Model the fold of this input.
Amino acid sequence: MPLPRKFRKAALTAETNGFFKDLNRHFAVHFQRGSTLVVTFDNMKSRDMPVPRFPWGMEFLERRGHSHLGIMMRRRNDWFRQSRLCDFFDELRDGGFFDRFEKVVFYGSSMGGDGALTFAAACPRARVVAFYPQTTLSPALAPWETRYRDARDRGDWDEPRYADAADTVREIGEAMVLYDPYHQLDSRHAARLTAESVTHLRCPFLGHKIPRYFAFWNILSTVTTRAIDGTLTEAEFYSLLRARRDHKSYVRHLLTRATDHGHAPLAGQALAWTGRHRPDWQLERKTRQLGLAA
Done:
C-alpha cells in the first residue's frame, strides 16, 4: 500500500536519525534524541493536525530533547487493535529497544490514553501519563461504552495482547490518569483502573477538554513536563489546578455542568464563593439563566 503524501515528511525525517515503519493500518515513527523515550499515540483530534502529519506531541517533546516513538493512524479513529501493531511492540520488547533509555514514558489522551495504558505492558518499568483514557471498547468488558461504534467495529477486540488497560496497568511501574469524575463514561473507565500503580488525578467539570483548559490556564506544559519527568505530586497537581478559579469561563462552565447534572447545591456553593472573591465578574445573567439564587 503506497504511503500517503501527508506522512512522507515524517518518514524522511525519522529515517535520518531513527526509523519509520509502515504497519499497514498504523505507522511507527521514532526520533532518537535524549535518554528519555516518550511513546505517544494518536487520538481523534490528530485528524485535525496540519499536513504534513507528525506524531502527536512531537513539537512538545522535541523542545525538551526527548526521544520519541509515535504511533500514528493511517485512517482516523483506528484504535490500535491490530495484530501487526501487537507484533511490533513484542519485537521492541524482545529486541531490547526500551533498554536503550534511562526513562520510558507512554503518553496519550482519550483513545491515545488507551493505547498508552495497554502497550506500556511491553516495558514494565515504564511510566504512563493518560488524559481521560478509555480502557477497552470490547463489548464483553465495557458494554456500557456507547461511543466510538465505528472504532469498535474496526478493531480486533479478540486479540489477547495489550487488550485491556485494567489488566495491563498491573504490569507497569506507575500511571497517572487525569479525568473528570463527573463525566459518566470516562469515570467508569477510570474506575476500572484499580491497580496500586495508578494515581487518579480528578479534574471536575472539564469533560473531554482537560488539555484545552490546562493550556488556557497556562498549566498544561508544567503538568505534562513534570508528569513525564516523574516529579509531579498529587499535592502539586491540585495546587496547579486551583488556577481554574481565576477564569470566569471555567466558573460559567462549572455552573452549567453542575445544574445540568442535578448538582444544584454544588453550583450554589461555587456561585457563593465566586460572589465573595470575584464580584467584578458580574455573573447575574448566568445565574438567572440557570435558576440559581444570587
Strands lie at 18-22, 26-31, 36-41, 67-73, 103-109, 127-131, 174-179, 198-202. The first strand starts at residue 18 and ends at 22. Residues 264-277 form the longest helix (14 residues). The chain has a mean pLDDT of 89.
